[in-house]
């Protein structure tokens, strides 16, 4: 098959007619397929159904005798802090546990900076009227909405094969109004990129004009490997920042949302002692403790990395066929056309598709009209505006592999139709 750009207008029109007929066939089926968000499927959640059974045998008490039903342990129980420390490669004393949402912890962390400033700040961040935040893109739309909601100017930097473009970041942080950045270092959302060690070290070592600059290191997919023979790994960012003489620079976040129950898991923030002392002081006013009963249930299920690894292998067995189904269709239906390229992630929850520039929004709309719901075009960029109108995030975990294949087939048809329309306009 010729690449679309090599076809004559007559050939393009003939192909479009054929594609439109296929599209109408699918539309007549009245399908309802949802690939909008990275949600675990019911069978993934079922893996954890027995998690609370252990509580009756332990009398709700930890090994050290803490009664998890009562007030105590504001930073969380030691057992679950150790599990998160093992997951993140840091000491349990660097871990502060929350309830189910790591996004909630990120928002609260930023709110503390807004109201009280950071350790090095000369004023609360809300007083910094020109405050800016670095947003690697394609990236996570909810990250962007947090900093936009809190009044930051969002600055886009591109992603590379080794993580965010550090050359661009090193230039941007020369501005004292740039106070921080987002980063998903392992299997980034949506590209599935793993930060290289060099990228991590440069981010830890770079000179910033703002003394209170912070990196929000959202390690959401740190153990979410699809293929055991190729596992994404990064160094401990807390240790790198300490070695670089910037010990307060990073806040690291994680949760069990895609390990156990998405809406009833445990989240955590990891940071150095000075940041931790400040966090504990403020949180001690805000709350007495988080849900330790749930922490104990999780610690019983996931007491060590062997148990975590076992759980994640079972998760991968369920979702890998869905990724394979989507990638197989993309390869079969789009590879020869020359109108698109996409990532082949080794872990995480997403596939990042890049269609012909100027056609992503039209492609998503065409899919919607055919019963396939996708993340809004532009959502992976700050302010919801993809400058190329090219990126579409695919979330293949929730539907069945069969439905994923069908939805991706429809997506490929829509991408071809919009690409042809674009070419015929030129």
Arithmetic mean of pLDDT: 98
CATH topology of the largest domain: Aspartate Aminotransferase, domain 2
Distance between the termini: 21 Å
Known CATH architecture of the largest domain: 3-Layer(aba) Sandwich
Biggest sheet: strand arrangement? 2-9-8-7-6-3-4-5
The share of residues in extended strands comes to 5-15%
The number of strands is 13
| Largest sheet features | 8 strands, mixed
Order of helices and strands: HEHHHEHEHEEHEHEHEEHHHEEHEEH
List the helices and strands and how they pair.
Elements: H1 9-28, E1 33-35, H2 42-46, H3 54-58, H4 78-88, E2 95-97, H5 102-116, E3 132-137, H6 141-149, E4 153-160, E5 163-164, H7 166-172, E6 178-183, H8 197-205, E7 214-218, H9 237-243, E8 250-255, E9 267-270, H10 273-286, H11 292-301, H12 305-334, E10 341-342, E11 351-354, H13 360-369, E12 372-374, E13 391-394, H14 401-425
Summarize the structure.
The protein folds into two domains: 4-44 and 310-425, Aspartate Aminotransferase, domain 1; 61-303, Aspartate Aminotransferase, domain 2 (3-Layer(aba) Sandwich). The chain has 14 helices and 13 strands.
């Amino acid at each position: 098959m010729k690449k679309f750009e090599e076809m004559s207008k007559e050939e393009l029109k003939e192909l479009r007619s054929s594609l439109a007929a296929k599209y109408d066939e699918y539309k007549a089926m009245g399908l309802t397929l949802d690939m909008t968000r990275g949600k675990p499927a019911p069978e993934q959640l079922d893996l954890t159904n027995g998690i609370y059974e252990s509580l009756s045998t332990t009398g709700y008490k930890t090994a050290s005798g803490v009664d998890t039903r009562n007030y105590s342990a504001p930073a969380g129980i030691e057992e679950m802090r150790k599990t998160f420390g093992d997951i993140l490669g840091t000491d349990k004393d660097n871990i502060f546990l929350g309830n189910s949402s790591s996004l909630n912890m990120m928002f609260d962390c930023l709110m503390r900076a807004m109201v009280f400033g950071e350790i090095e700040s000369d004023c609360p961040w809300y007083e910094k009227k020109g405050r800016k935040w670095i947003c690697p893109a394609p990236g996570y739309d909810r990250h962007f909405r947090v900093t936009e909601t809190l009044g930051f100017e969002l600055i886009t930097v591109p992603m590379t094969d080794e993580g965010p473009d550090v050359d661009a970041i090193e230039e941007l942080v020369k501005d004292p109004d740039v106070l921080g950045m987002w980063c998903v270092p392992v299997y980034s959302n949506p590209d599935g990129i793993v930060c290289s060690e060099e990228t991590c070290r440069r981010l830890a070592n770079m000179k910033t004009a703002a003394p209170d600059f912070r990196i929000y290191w959202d390690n959401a997919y740190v153990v979410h490997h699809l293929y055991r023979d190729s596992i994404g790994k990064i160094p401990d960012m807390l240790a790198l920042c300490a070695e670089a003489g910037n010990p307060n620079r990073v806040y690291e976040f994680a949760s069990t949302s895609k390990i156990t129950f998405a809406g009833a898991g445990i989240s955590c923030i990891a940071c150095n002692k000075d940041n931790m002392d400040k966090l504990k002081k403020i949180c001690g006013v805000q709350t007495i403790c988080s849900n330790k009963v749930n922490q104990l249930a999780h610690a019983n299920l996931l007491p060590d990395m062997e148990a975590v690894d076992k759980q994640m292998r079972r998760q991968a067995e369920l979702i890998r066929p869905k990724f394979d189904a989507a990638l197989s269709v993309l390869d079969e239906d789009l590879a020869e056309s020359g109108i698109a390229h996409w990532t082949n992630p080794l872990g995480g929850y997403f596939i990042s598709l890049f269609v012909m520039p100027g056609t992503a929004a039209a492609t998503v709309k065409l899919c919607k009209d055919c019963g396939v719901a996708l993340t809004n075009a532009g959502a992976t960029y700050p302010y919801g505006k993809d400058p190329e109108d090219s990126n579409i995030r695919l979330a293949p975990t929730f539907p069945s592999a069969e439905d994923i294949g069908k939805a991706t087939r429809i997506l490929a048809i829509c991408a071809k139709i919009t690409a042809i329309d674009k070419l015929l306009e030129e």
